[in-house]
Amino acid sequence: MTPENLIWIAMLLPLVAIALVFIIGEKSPNIRESCTIGIAVTLFWVTTRLAGFVFSGGRPSFKMGEMLPGFEIAFTVEPLGMLFALVASGLWILTTVYAIGYMRGHHEKNQTRFYACFASAIFAALAAAFAANLFTLFVAYELMTISTYPLVTHHGDEKAKKGGRIYLGILLSTSVAFFMLAIAWTWTVAGTLDFTPGGILAQPNIDGKISDFQLSVLLGLFAFGIGKAAIMPFHRWLPAAMVAPTPVSALLHAVAVVKVGVFSILKVSIYIFGIDLISETRLGEGANPIMMSDWLCYLAGATILLASLVAMTKDNLKARLAYSTISQLAYITLGAALATSDSVIGGGMHIAMHAVGKITLFFCAGAIYVGAHKTNISDMRGLGRAMPLTMGAFLLATLSIIGLPPGGGAWSKWFLALGTVQTGHFWLLAALMISSLLNIAYLIPIPIRAFMTPAGEAPMKFKEAPMMCVVPLCITAVGSVALFFFGNEIYDVLLPIATSAR
Amino acid sequence: MIEQLPVLVIVIPLMAAPLFVLIGNRKLVLLLTQLVCWTVFGITVSLLSRMQYGPISYELGGWPSPYGIVYNVDYLSAFVMLFVSGLGAIVITYAPKSVEREVHHSKHSLFYASYLLCMTGLLGMCITGDLFNVFVFLEISSLSSYALISLGKTRRAPLAALHYLIIGTVGATFFLIGIGLLYQMTGTLNMADIASRLQAIESSRTMLVAFAFMTVGLFIKMAVFPLHTWLPNAYTYAPSVVTCFIAATATKVSVYAFIRLIYVIFTPQFAFERLPLDSALMAFSLVGIFVASAAAIYQTNIKRLLAYSSVAQIGYMLLGISMSNVGGLTAGITHMFNHALIKGGLFMVVGCFALRIGSLKLEDLRGAGKTMPLTSFAWVVGGLGLIGVPMTAGFVSKWLLLTSALSLELWPVAVLMLLSSLLAVVYIWRVVEILYFSPASHLAKTAKEAPMAMLIPTYIVIGSTIVFGCWTVYSAGIAHAAAESLLGISQMGGVQ
Amino acid sequence: MTDFLGLYNYWIVIFLMMTGFYIVIARENLIKTIIGLNIFQTSVFLLYITMGKVNGGTAPILKGSHSGESHGAEGHGAESHGAESHGAESHGAEHGQELHAAAEGHLDSGVEAVTEIYSNPIPSVLMLTAIVVGIATTALALALVVRIREEYGTIEEDEILEMDRNS
Question: What is this structure's pTM?
Fold first, then answer.
């Protein structure tokens, strides 16, 4: 099984899933679900095999053909994309199991459409992960927006419609107005859109086709155009998408949508600009020229802090988690903007760490909704007695999000902090520390209060969420801690993306 | 037989039309019309496939050019004829049930005969190399479309047709004045001959006036803002089948005539360098795109919404043409093709709604997503094409326009173009929300899914917007070849 | 001065064109609008037809076949067409001398020199077609007006718009 074949097989599998789900339809939900799980497991197996090749240095590629004269759809796998694909395919299995529990426990309608759109979102994620050029990435990016819209508006009521409007409105506007423009500009200047180690803009910058200031503007167009990375002020779609059923939120906020966003930002920084170009291009004369990406670093830092502050004010658990996600995504954008070897690797690691940690938190939120019908944190006092596994998992995952050992997030935070020190952005270092404190403030109280008995009332009886919901969230919680111990391996795997730039 | 193909593509439908009026039996006429349309489509396919061997020149009656009328088939004309006849064939296959419902029985044979005449006129405009012949075919297609539009159900149909007639005739007459003035200057009506003789003449006032008259005449026919006022009413009140066909083809063929005017007869050097036509065209197109898209957002009738959208899309085509490089021209020509498919498909969807729900008002379509799922899904896919999402045909045109604008450093044009496509998101998504998110209206609740005989052609056309969004060898590829040969001609300037 | 008066045909054309156009725009009665359209089209017919007239030219009808002609009528026709094209090339109202000489010189070569000056038949022929188109348009327009009258009961445009606004 050559690695090239593995690429297209990996992308074909979700499409097969879509077909099977539609063919089986409502006739036999159990067979339908087992098809999805079967394909998800196969996909994970394929991606791990592919990872074997890629992490030992291989860069397999696969061309599909020209979509437009001069622009082709092509796939090349490199370590960052491979990591993303692994995360996506692994978590698909768990999310599907969880979704079965949730959708059935909640008697949701339109489940065929649900599982089919899920599969197409995974397909889009894989296509983005393996994209060899900006054009393919853009196609996959838009495909993701379209395929997740029916998931966000699943309930079909007025609230869903309004949420869907904000979701689609912001994502399509930013991608058409900024992202597409940025890609076309890059092509006009560089003559190619291929992801190349070291970037493709260094030579045009030297040739004078694009000035230093224009590079900064282009970076801005990319940063704002990739709306899925939820940089302020284009972050509103994330809380708006909370109208979706929780498995969708788990998918959106851990696996597919947001990770495509920050992944794209990382890819653009590393393989289009090149971390050397970003860190070495200075704007302004005099004693203190600033890095061309300085404004982005500070914007990311502001997003980190502001989102955490807003999260503290939210009583609805999913809303709080949404703002927490916005904050955590800004970490990765910060890593890209700082453009040092360590910060970029930290950002890549955080894709994995955050994905596993956040998905656990969302799984818990959904389990609480299905098992105890509670959505507000103020109602969750004492819930730990009724749902010890759920709350325990919540506590474990929180460690990762906060960045405390033994949570995996500790590693990514460490490397990001290193990056801020290396570039002299001490204010940003402070921002990272403060945000950890804020994370503690808005996340830890939830499980702690849950394990306390409500004053004067009898302790709740044990009544966990359905097993199919609880098992996945326990697995991911353990995973978020396990990743801590694999920090070194992940670092080694991602190292080539930073060093091959030289 | 093969050598006669260029003339057969005109003769067959032209002779069939009066014959079918005589036959009278409406079922037989329907069948024969479908046969004729598919035959003509086959002929255009074979003509296009011959283009790899070079352009074809067919002299009518054996009279040598430039004395006789010549039919020229090159990449551009073959391409336009292909999608005109293709859509003509698909729409007539889709037509029967819709025509049953919307046109009175006694008028059916006349309806199909006029349909064939309209197609003849449009194909003739594409294939002919004689300027007066263009006028004749233009009038043939226009007159038959006035007749077709007037067959609509409501009493506003003949009024809309009359308004279109008056404005359209004024436009065609302007075009005729331009031809007359050109004839005075050059003494010939053959387009290639005119081009070469115009080269010898330094710009004279007569030339400018001729150009102005012809341009304004074609602007009326193309429905360029602000001369577009006939279009919304004509599209809205015509029978659904008529709107499908005309919206997909008529304005595009006038754009084709405009391309010939600028790039073959008058040469881009004259139009864009001596006259500021490129900036004027860009300004008109951009204003038209924004105004028409904004107007579409506020419509309550779904056909009128799409009609304003069509006016906006013509703007994109002209935007491409005004950038007189290969990229821009390719973009404009590709958009002619892509928009024909997308708009034709969307109007076919509307025809399905009209058949089952019986109303075109958006408030009556509420909730139709549940009772007519296939039709509604076709709207979503077609709508995505109109917005320009990747993997649809609309994206191909937008991308080509964007990259040409940037390569010419026309930043404001690029930015405005992108912003305008966001307006399309608003009006398309309004309908999607009405279809899927609203409680069903009284009419929608009792509606059945559209009949297969209409759904299958609709899905063929909508499906092709996805196919040509991913596989552009035969759309953008051919457009590119056409653009190159056009610019090659004008560079030679017809010096003989 | 002669130029101004000499271009009298164009002045008539312009007058008719503007009259017709004005009627189309300004008149509210549908029948009058159609008449205006007709006048507008007629002015264009006049434009072409007067354009074809050659100073001193006679009606372009060949008188029988000339003896000794090897080309036959076709060749003769082609040659005079060529001569007429040459003639029409000289813009505007400059008919006359040059054309005469050109025609003569052209026809001199090997054929019986027939110093006949013909007016250009082409524009008249083109206008035959255009007149037919105009008739068809008028017929269609009148048919539409009949239907509008049936539906609305009036042919005044302002009343029709009023009825549409109210319905």
Answer: 0.90
